[in-house]
Design a protein that fits this description.
The chain is mostly beta strands and 568 residues long. The chain is built from six helices and 39 strands. Helix 2 crosses helix 3.
Amino acid sequence: MLVGLVGLTGCVIEEDGIQVSPPPPTKMNVVVNRLHGVDVPDPYQWLEDQGAPETRAWIDAQNAYTDSVLDVLPRRDEISQLAANVIKRDAVGLPAERAGRYFFSMRRADQQLDVIYVREGLHGSDRVLIDPHPMSLDHTTSVQLRDLSADATKAVYSVREGGVDEVSIRVRDVETGEDLADVLPPARYGEVHLAGDAAGLYYTRYGDVTPRVLYHDFGTSFSDDIVLFGDGYERHHIPVTVLSDDGRWLVVHVIEGSSGPTEIYVKDLQSDAPFVTAIADGQSESWAEFAGDELVITTNLAAPNKRVVVADPAKPEVDMWREVIPERDDVVVQAAYGLGGRLAVSYLQDVQPRFALYSLDGGHVRDITFDTIGSVGGGSGRWDSPEAFFTYETFHVPRTIFRYDVVTGEQTVWSEPVTPVDAGRYEVTQHWYTSKDGTRVPMFVTQSSNLARDGRNPVLLTGYGGFNNSLTPAFSELATIWLEMGGVFAVANMRGGGEFGESWHRAGMLEHKQNVFDDFIAAAEWLIDNRLSSPDKLAIRGGSNGGLLVGAVTVSYTHLTLPTSDLV
């Protein structure tokens, strides 16, 4: 991952008695690659071979340089202790209920890995179902719960060793704590579903092979697994499956690349009939879930901000769709699915994730809202149970899990995080600023409630601006530590993301990429103009696509003469 940091130093400077020297030089060895008919010179391609002695020596030199800078900081021990207190906390995952049992993951403050627990009843005792810590001496083997049988007697989970992409799939008997003999060998798997009768597994496999959907019957050889779907597709196609609660209907989504058009196919598993095409127009993005006997589809077909339709899974074709929630200009629909006999719809409104409940005919039941700026997430539950679980979090408060009664709207805290931070000392506000071409762009600012606007506050500004990814309020250890040290944390929601639908996404990609850089520069200028910071107190940061963003604005944001450094 490329991480860019601006606000550090690229030359010898002295501040508060600390002298910082430039980083070790990096050799340039230009290699020209021809990509899409264009010659692209790359002076640092040699660094891609991370096992090479020369690359390792470069990494060691960079690490040593980093230590030389950080070791002299007068408050480093204080920062390290604060970071440990913020990071080392109990982290609890959303529970999944089956037959009165509640399954969830939890990593305690003194643990390295998530452990899977089962609770007997809502207020019953917890017991460890799967603990990955004994699986490796160096604690590099992790587990993840993938599916549960309807009677809560079987739990499907994956095992990842050493952080590699490949995982193995195992099935644990909840009663005995023993695993079944069947183990899907290490590979890149997508979704894994227990069949309705729990006699086998439906699973997707990709990466090392062309994408395919298969069925494995327990007690048989894996070489005999039945290929249900995948003929004609290439490795850049990604299959994603959804199985109906009763195990009758299998939905296969095919996504082209990391983001692209989505095809949807539906199969009746009680029939020998082939998959039926719901949509495969090569242009639109759609997603199907289940609400009882209905297929619920979120789609941008004829709706850039997306709308929700329903269909009979036996007749899922586009011309059989019935619109239940039309597109709106002020929200971007993200997903819809059945929950407690209702239609749960997640959406973005002013870059804040929200949930609303509807009847299957589209009638609005109620919104799930909170008084502060943050994000509602989760929505864990089943169609035939009124019980659901939601989360709420913001930049400096980890997610709280709420138990929610879909019928009455009553909500109670199921799990609440404990942190050493007094959340009441800080507030999250949202501001709109004007970019270079006149476009209004939002930005979240998290700060002390009594912050002085004197232009002297240290501000850390971050962003992403790409791949339809939305930066919504989510807990950040970095932000929390920064706030506790007296800083201000800002997140700009530039074009290129999905904050306001497909038009916002496309306005920041390809030939429009400059808009992203302009949006980010304008965010920095707004923070300075409104006296939250000043050029010598403002730092910018980004990861992955955000790292490229930082690099791009660094070379164009010259009028502030910010010293720079990059970390790779």
